[in-house]
Amino acid sequence: MGYQNSQRPLVLNKALKQSESIIRVMACRVICDSKLLFPSYFKRLINDRYAPIRRITLTTLAEINYIDAIRELRNSLVDPHISVREVSRFYLNSVTEIDYANHYLDYLWSENTKSLATALIALGEVGGPEHVEILAEYTNQADIKIKRAALRGLSLLNFEQFLELFYIALQSDNNGLSVEGYRGLRKKAHLIDSNRLLNMLLKSPEIHVAKYVVRLFAVINKWDQLRCLLNALEIMRDSNIRVEIKAQLRKWISSFNRSVQAKPDAFKVEEVNKMLDRLAQDLGEKEVKKLKFLIR
Prior knowledge:
Elements: H1 8-16, H2 21-32, H3 38-46, H4 51-63, H5 69-75, H6 82-95, H7 100-109, H8 116-126, H9 132-137, H10 144-155, H11 163-170, H12 175-187, H13 194-203, H14 207-217, H15 222-235, H16 239-254, H17 256-259, H18 269-278, H19 280-283, H20 285-295
């Protein structure tokens, strides 16, 4: 940024108002590199809507040992963005001892619910087995934001006993809850019931549910994946989802030798061949021949 010192405030103020985040970040770095400018801009930067700016500002504050460092670091333990929370915990570890799980539990028990959603996610980041049931309880809340946060936090711990909560969320008519169900189940791919996912496609009228179900097919056992994808292609009429199914099938073919394990006894070749015959027009003769050759 080439400008005279007298123009600095004007240029920086203008830069901080820009919609382009990269320009605001550049202005933030100029301010944080200046011991004279930093104090007067601190409050504005620490409350910026863009997480990288808050993170850079908090890091600068901690590095120069500014008088409010500990207070601001503690406040940022419930910043909406994980990168800022991680910076807070990193620097607080060097200056004080905090039981972070109990710190976040205090927010859960508090009457002030402003930071409750963030505290639920953060508890998952730092918590242990003893916090799983606490987070599971919050998935019963009526507030969608709180339910999503509880699911997100729970997915960061060992939540196998509450896997059902993620199946329920996946089928929600709320897209945000479906996202959390998808993310949680994806982390436990080895436990996914592929037949249950197929039943969801048959029963759910929600396109977003079908989209996430199909994406889960990509992380299950490859032989199950093939069977599910072919079934899904017969079931689904939505053009965008059909495109995604076909893309997964092409990837299944191209990665066969690298990623497909030995064919299990339960895999019914004749049944799959019949499905391929029915889908010949959709998939094309070339793709059907490849698949029949690979599963023979």
